[in-house]
Design brief:
Main location: membrane
Function: Putative odorant or sperm cell receptor.
Protein name: Olfactory receptor
Number of helices: 11
Strand order of the largest sheet: 2-1-3
GO molecular function: G protein-coupled receptor activity; olfactory receptor activity
Strand content: under 5%
CATH architecture: Up-down Bundle
Number of strands: 3
Family: Belongs to the G-protein coupled receptor 1 family.
Distance between the termini: 67 Å
Number of domains: 1
Length: about 325
């Protein structure tokens, strides 16, 4: 096995859309702008959630975790993609590919679980308002967030290891923008049914189970919201939940279309488009979805900007 993978130690060639060279410059601009927006949006959410005392709540604790995750998510792939889009060489080192594979999968797995925990937080806040401070106390929130990150990285360790150990017989050309499990499994020169079965089982656990839990949670939330008499309170609850549901839809359905099927059945370009969507588009949009639809976050941002302006003009 070591001999069959020896040539890959020199690195991999990432094709991306190199067969459509006219797309590379527009894609470079789009990815660069998206990455800058992702950096600005996610860093702003993290800072505001940490510094503004009015956002010191479980909801914004988990939102800041999501922003940190999305910040790392985009950084694990986009800089390398930008280098390959502008440079003549479309390569990535062997170590860089393995690191990218592990980190990207770990962060994606973590986000699957984190979104389910955020749905539970909304359920506790809306359906159990009197017990909410007890249910979602600070220690429990920290334990839940820590468990989420550990679970995501543990899942990635299993999947990444099995993927890396699959014999590739010297094949180095990856038909993708970055190193991802389905793309690397396509390089295998042996039967990959065991890997594909393992991938589907873990994908079902990390994608379908949390998704069904989220949908079930929102059934109870919808019932509780409809019983709220105050129109203003009902609208606030609906607005907060709508932001979370939009994030869930953007992430889960694109990820499911990639991972809950055998990698051998992926179409050539569809897989790339889906990966770009949940790997770049979703992490870029998440902070703006929460910001633009949330009065508390917008008010906190205004207070932070006003404070900064006051300090500079003294």
């Amino acid at each position: 096995m070591w001999v069959s993978n020896q040539s890959s130690l020199d690195g991999f060639i990432l094709l991306g859309f190199s067969d459509r060279s006219w797309l590379e410059t527009p894609l470079f601009v789009i990815f660069l702008v998206a990455y800058l927006f992702a950096l600005f949006g996610n860093i702003s959410i993290i800072l505001v959630s940490r510094l503004d005392p009015q956002l010191d709540s479980p909801m914004y604790f988990f939102v800041s975790n999501l922003s940190l995750l999305d910040l790392c998510f985009t950084t694990s792939t986009v800089p390398q993609m930008l280098v390959n889009l502008r440079g003549p060489k479309k390569t990535i080192s062997y170590g860089g590919c393995i690191a990218q594979l592990y980190i990207f999968l770990a962060l994606g797995s973590t986000e699957c679980i984190l979104l389910a925990i955020m749905a539970f937080d909304r359920y506790a806040a809306i359906c159990k308002p009197l017990r909410y401070p007890i249910i979602m106390n600070q220690r429990r929130c920290i334990y839940m967030a820590t468990g989420t990150w550990i679970s995501g990285f543990a899942n990635s360790l299993v999947q990444s290891t099995l993927t890396v150990l699959t014999p590739r017989c010297g094949q180095r050309v990856v038909d993708h923008f970055f190193c991802e499990v389905p793309a690397l499994l396509k390089l295998a020169c042996t039967d990959t049914h065991v890997n594909e079965a393992e991938l589907n089982v873990l994908a079902a656990l990390l994608l379908l189970v949390p998704l069904f839990l989220i949908l079930g949670t929102y059934v109870f939330i919808a019932r509780a919201v409809m019983r709220i008499r105050s129109a203003e309170s009902r609208w606030k609850a609906f607005n907060t939940c709508a932001s979370h549901l939009l994030v869930v839809s953007l992430f889960y359905f694109t990820a499911i279309s990639m991972y809950v099927q055998p990698p051998s059945s992926y179409s050539r370009d569809r897989g790339k488009i889906m990966a770009l969507f949940y790997g770049i588009v979703t992490p870029t949009l998440n902070p703006y979805i929460y910001t633009l639809r949330n009065k508390d976050v917008k008010a906190a941002l205004r207070r932070a900007l006003a404070k900064e302006f006051w300090v500079r003009t003294r």
